[in-house]
Design brief:
The complex is a heterodimer.
Chain A: E1 5-7, E2 10-13, E3 19-24, E4 31-37, E5 43-50, E6 53-56, E7 65-68, E8 75-79, E9 88-95, E10 105-106, E11 110-114
Parallel strand pairs in A: 2-11
Antiparallel strand pairs in A: 1-3, 3-8, 4-5, 4-9, 5-6, 7-8, 9-10, 9-11
Chain B: E1 4-6, E2 9-13, E3 18-24, E4 31-37, E5 43-50, E6 55-58, E7 61-66, E8 71-76, E9 85-91, E10 102-103, E11 107-112
Parallel strand pairs in B: 2-11
Antiparallel strand pairs in B: 1-3, 3-8, 4-5, 4-9, 6-7, 7-8, 9-10, 9-11
Classes of the chains: A mainly beta, B mainly beta.
Chain lengths: 115, 113
């Protein structure tokens, strides 16, 4: 049973380009969460999605960032017109419909570098 | 708002016990977690504790929870050099049993041979 799969693991973008990060949840999991880890900091919640629905986007920057979790396929975190401050590790986590303490799993992360 | 605080750095000698401390502000937290992160790697769930428990032990790891003081600690017995990593405390806050977690800034554990 594969874990949470994120790709790409490492991505380099020039300022102004777009970055797309993908997350495939664990099999049987219908809830996806995105977190951002800036250098030397802890993880900060960005957005919580279920299939075709954004449940909580209270941690998402108001501009340039968007997320989706379509009926088919992985969840996508999209960053438009990237700036140097977007350089960070982006982690995806997933959980099943019925959440309990040990049923949230994190992916290995996607490291975005903006040059 | 909700907050989780940790000390930033801890250095111990191999074979000693390590104690990493964490405080949180949200009294409605249901679950509290400890994660380990090695350089350039993802998060590894070490252990978690349900808020109605005071203590949980799992091999070399002991978690103590003081709900009154909103204080959580992780004790690693017989610390090894392979335990060197960043340790994150996280709580589920008032998220209503979802995976929306609030993380501390991480404690870097350095284990000297």
């Amino acid at each position: 049973n594969a874990g949470v799969m994120q790709n790409p693991r490492h991505l380099v973008r020039r300022r102004g380009q777009e970055a797309r990060l993908r997350c495939s949840p664990m099999k049987g999991h219908s809830h996806v969460y995105w977190y951002r880890q800036l250098p030397e900091e802890g993880l900060k919640f960005m957005v919580y999605l279920q299939k075709e629905n954004i449940i909580d986007e209270s941690g998402m920057p108001k501009e340039r960032f968007s997320a989706e979790f379509p009926k088919e396929g992985p969840s996508i975190l999209r960053i438009q017109q990237v700036v140097r401050g977007d350089s960070a590790a982006y982690f995806c986590a997933s959980s099943p419909e019925s959440f309990s303490g040990n049923t949230i799993y994190f992916g290995e992360g996607s490291w975005l570098t903006v040059v | 708002g909700e907050d989780v605080e940790q000390s930033l750095f801890l250095s111990v000698r191999e074979g000693d016990s390590s104690v990493i401390n964490c405080t949180y502000t949200d009294s409605s937290s249901t679950y509290l977690y400890w994660y380990k992160q090695e350089p350039g790697a993802g998060l590894q769930l070490l252990t978690y504790i349900f808020s109605n428990m005071d203590m949980k032990q799992d091999q070399r790891l002991t978690v103590l929870l003081n709900k009154k003081d909103k204080h959580l600690s992780l004790r690693i017995a017989d610390t090894q050099t392979g335990d060197s990593a960043i340790y994150f405390c996280a709580d589920s806050g008032g998220s209503g049993n979802t995976g929306k977690l609030i993380f501390g800034q991480g404690t870097t554990l350095q284990v000297k041979p």
